[in-house]
Amino acid sequence: MDYITVNNLSFVYDAEPVLENVAFRISAGEFVTLTGENGAAKSTLVKATLGIIKPKTGEVTIAKQNIKGKKLRISYLPQQIASFNAGFPSTVKEFVTSGRFPRNGWFKRITQHDLAHVEKSLRAVGMWEQSDQRMGALSGGQKQRVAIARMFASDPDLFILDEPTTGMDDVSRSEFYRLMSHAAHKHGKAVLMITHDAEDVKAFSDRNIHLARKQNTHWRCFSVHDNTAEQDSETLKNQEVRGA
């Protein structure tokens, strides 16, 4: 089941083409990476897909329901989400617990089930022992892991991640990729992750969509085409697509 379908998406910034004729899909149960050279408008593509910014042309369809027939839940983790200053008042546990409120409604009590989910999420990213610390007192890598734990605690169906492993060491990055693979392959989640570590994540992901410069045009013009239906599974494992 496709959670995201994008067709012929184009985006213009100050009259300059940034994305042209982009097409791709993300389905339940798969872990997809999005790569491209610096300046390839990867974050712009994600924001246009989510409706944060308005594309010039194109059609974006986001499923209303998940594979169980319930309302689709989306979690978006932008870049530098973990830039909390030293005065940020919440503890790690309080911050992650806040991820449960939209699921239950803002005025409903947090239950023991919620707290168990929060603990599980923090343990998954190796931050349970720091649950009583203030967010502002953590290192950059620790803040990033806590932000990811909050995302896990909200239990979304679709994860949209923009460079989520920034500030993590090699071991933490590998563990995070394993967790996202488990979420997709064992729990039917859909994952779209922008990354510069395509080789490191290759063993965990299902396929890679690569934003590449469209030939014979200005360097800011990029195209991506997801022709997965016409390719075998081996090709999907490493998909690099260029515009015509």
Automatic annotation (TrEMBL):
Superkingdom of the organism of origin: Bacteria
InterPro entries in the cross-refs: AAA+_ATPase, ABC_transporter-like_ATP-bd, ABC_transporter-like_CS, Metal_Ion_Import_ABC, P-loop_NTPase
Keyword Transport: yes
CDD domains in UniProt: ABC_Metallic_Cations (cd03235)
Pfam families, per the entry: ABC_tran
A molecular-function term among this protein's GO annotations: ATP binding
Domain ABC transporter residues, every copy: 4-238
Keywords: ATP-binding, Nucleotide-binding, Transport
Gene3D superfamilies to which the protein is assigned, alphabetical: P-loop containing nucleotide triphosphate hydrolases
Name the record gives this protein: ABC transporter domain-containing protein
